[in-house]
Amino acid sequence: MDINNFQFSDGITMSIFAMLVVFLILVLLQMIIYSFKFLPQDLNGKNKAVTAAPVAAPAHQDNDEEDRMVAMLTASALAKEEYQGNVKVKSIKRIG
Protein backbone atom coordinates (compact mmCIF):
# COMPACT_ATOMS: atom_id res chain seq x y z
CA MET A 1 0.00 0.00 0.00
CA ASP A 2 1.68 3.17 -1.22
CA ILE A 3 0.55 6.60 0.02
CA ASN A 4 0.75 8.01 -3.50
CA ASN A 5 -1.55 5.30 -4.90
CA PHE A 6 -3.97 5.19 -1.94
CA GLN A 7 -7.44 4.29 -3.19
CA PHE A 8 -10.91 4.36 -1.67
CA SER A 9 -10.95 0.58 -1.20
CA ASP A 10 -7.69 0.82 0.76
CA GLY A 11 -9.32 3.38 3.06
CA ILE A 12 -12.33 1.11 3.62
CA THR A 13 -10.05 -1.84 4.42
CA MET A 14 -8.02 0.22 6.87
CA SER A 15 -11.17 1.58 8.54
CA ILE A 16 -12.65 -1.90 9.02
CA PHE A 17 -9.35 -3.17 10.43
CA ALA A 18 -9.12 -0.21 12.85
CA MET A 19 -12.70 -0.75 14.05
CA LEU A 20 -12.02 -4.45 14.62
CA VAL A 21 -8.95 -3.60 16.69
CA VAL A 22 -10.96 -1.15 18.81
CA PHE A 23 -13.77 -3.64 19.43
CA LEU A 24 -11.31 -6.41 20.29
CA ILE A 25 -9.65 -4.14 22.85
CA LEU A 26 -13.05 -3.24 24.30
CA VAL A 27 -13.97 -6.93 24.63
CA LEU A 28 -10.62 -7.59 26.29
CA LEU A 29 -11.20 -4.76 28.78
CA GLN A 30 -14.70 -6.07 29.49
CA MET A 31 -13.32 -9.52 30.27
CA ILE A 32 -10.65 -8.03 32.56
CA ILE A 33 -13.24 -5.99 34.46
CA TYR A 34 -15.55 -9.02 34.68
CA SER A 35 -12.72 -11.13 36.14
CA PHE A 36 -12.23 -8.66 39.04
CA LYS A 37 -15.18 -10.15 40.89
CA PHE A 38 -13.30 -13.44 41.21
CA LEU A 39 -10.31 -11.83 42.93
CA PRO A 40 -10.18 -11.75 46.74
CA GLN A 41 -11.18 -8.46 48.31
CA ASP A 42 -8.63 -8.58 51.17
CA LEU A 43 -6.05 -5.81 50.76
CA ASN A 44 -3.71 -7.10 53.51
CA GLY A 45 -2.54 -10.05 51.42
CA LYS A 46 -4.25 -12.67 53.57
CA ASN A 47 -6.57 -15.20 52.02
CA LYS A 48 -9.48 -15.02 54.42
CA ALA A 49 -12.88 -16.35 53.57
CA VAL A 50 -15.44 -13.58 53.67
CA THR A 51 -18.30 -14.43 56.01
CA ALA A 52 -21.17 -12.10 56.67
CA ALA A 53 -21.96 -11.88 60.35
CA PRO A 54 -25.49 -10.83 61.24
CA VAL A 55 -25.56 -7.26 62.48
CA ALA A 56 -28.07 -6.34 65.15
CA ALA A 57 -30.23 -3.36 64.30
CA PRO A 58 -29.63 -0.36 66.57
CA ALA A 59 -32.37 0.32 69.10
CA HIS A 60 -32.55 4.01 68.20
CA GLN A 61 -31.80 5.37 64.78
CA ASP A 62 -29.84 8.61 64.59
CA ASN A 63 -31.09 9.46 61.12
CA ASP A 64 -34.69 10.15 62.17
CA GLU A 65 -34.81 13.29 60.03
CA GLU A 66 -33.83 11.30 56.95
CA ASP A 67 -36.50 8.71 57.74
CA ARG A 68 -39.08 11.47 58.00
CA MET A 69 -38.03 12.89 54.63
CA VAL A 70 -38.28 9.47 52.99
CA ALA A 71 -41.71 8.95 54.53
CA MET A 72 -42.93 12.32 53.24
CA LEU A 73 -41.64 11.70 49.72
CA THR A 74 -43.12 8.19 49.62
CA ALA A 75 -46.49 9.37 50.90
CA SER A 76 -46.63 12.24 48.43
CA ALA A 77 -45.65 9.98 45.51
CA LEU A 78 -48.33 7.44 46.39
CA ALA A 79 -50.97 10.15 46.91
CA LYS A 80 -50.00 11.79 43.61
CA GLU A 81 -50.98 8.60 41.79
CA GLU A 82 -54.43 8.67 43.35
CA TYR A 83 -55.28 12.40 43.30
CA GLN A 84 -55.03 14.84 40.40
CA GLY A 85 -53.24 17.91 41.71
CA ASN A 86 -50.64 18.96 44.22
CA VAL A 87 -50.26 17.02 47.45
CA LYS A 88 -49.05 18.52 50.73
CA VAL A 89 -47.95 16.35 53.66
CA LYS A 90 -49.02 18.04 56.90
CA SER A 91 -47.70 15.65 59.53
CA ILE A 92 -45.84 12.40 59.98
CA LYS A 93 -46.66 9.87 62.67
CA ARG A 94 -44.64 6.72 63.33
CA ILE A 95 -46.94 3.71 63.51
CA GLY A 96 -44.44 0.90 63.96
TrEMBL record:
Keywords assigned: Cell membrane, Membrane, Transmembrane, Transmembrane helix
Coiled coil spans: none
GO CC terms: plasma membrane
Subcellular location: Cell membrane
InterPro entries: Na_pump_deCOase
Segments traversing the membrane: 12-36
One Pfam family recorded for the sequence: OAD_gamma
Domain of life: Bacteria
GO molecular function: sodium ion transmembrane transporter activity
GO biological process: sodium ion export across plasma membrane
Name assigned to this protein: OadG family protein
Organism: Proteiniclasticum aestuarii
